[in-house]
Amino acid sequence: xxxxxxxxxxxxxxxxxxxxxxxxxxxxxxxxxxxxxxxxxxxxxxxxxxxxxxxxxxxxxxxxxxxxxxxxxxxxxxxxxxxxxxxxxxxxxxxxxxxxxxxxxxxxxxxxxxxxxxxxxxxxxxxxxxxxxxxxxxxxxxxxxxxxxxxxxxxxxxxxxxxxxxxxxxxxxxxxxxxxxxxxxxxxxxxxxxxxxxxxxxxxxxxxxxxxxxxxxxxxxxxxxxxxxxxxxxxxxxxxxxxxxxxxxxxxxxxxxxxxxxxxxxxxxxxxxxxxxxxxxxxxxxxxxxxxxxxxxxxxxxxxxxxxxxxxxxxxxxxxxxxxxxxxxxxxxxxxxxxxxxxxxxx
Length: 347
Fold this sequence. Notes:
30% of the residues lie in helices and 29% in strands. The protein has helices spanning 30-40, 72-76, 93-101, 121-134, 148-155, 157-164, 182-189, 192-204, 293-306, 314-328, and strands at residues 21-26, 45-51, 68-69, 83-86, 110-114, 137-141, 167-177, 210-220, 223-230, 238-244, 246-258, 263-267, 272-276, 282-287, 334-337. By secondary structure, the protein is α/β, with parallel strands linked by helices. It is globular and about 60 Å long.
């Protein structure tokens, strides 16, 4: 194990250590770097360790003034940690969670995992069992549901529905330009669906109760379309999601359609929200600005670590994951109608 300054000890002493959360970041690539930068601005959080197979050569390590380890076992054998953030490739999440929550010293009390927690039902069940057995607060960082336009619409949902009627449908499109590097991104993230579909589900869950998966269609990991019923909807409402990696630019948006035909368009790429009348006229436009990188992570991590009011319930997280995993379990190409869905993974 090496330290960033080569001195054999942490480079910074925080006099307020006893009043802060000691945090470790596992995985010091792009996502891990966002967490490290965001935590630096949260005074009550103190990063006490990082973990990456590359050690102090990992991309985010150079910005950290704390010990950098090459394994979770080294971390746990060296420093006490209250919160661990897991920012490793998707397929590794269940194994990393198992290492963090296994027998031994310095087991974290809270573990926050980059979405998704796991890409399969067995992986979800394994993580849930470990968290229950060790009484660890295990949560998933669902990025899109914490963007400012989503939070604004969620907080003002009642007033919007009083004016326009209940939300009768939700449509999300999450596109990333990963086609040219499909092998790399498939290895890291699994597929467009398991990477972005779960983000879209987490946004929809702010506004409607998710029901059963009705339709799924996809030709390859590059694109998947899914339709999920809105539970209890008297008008057969649905959530339609398209997750794709075949676009030339990164475009992400969600449209809420109300009973009177009005629409609220949430542009996650631009950080904007429009409310359009049935005739297409602008009733309201709000510009929040793009929420990317550390700017998105700061309020999200603050909410997760402090149990903020915008946190999704554990049951809702479980439902989102189980729907995502039920679709991900199908083999390409997918063309299924009335896919059976049962929330079993976290029971």
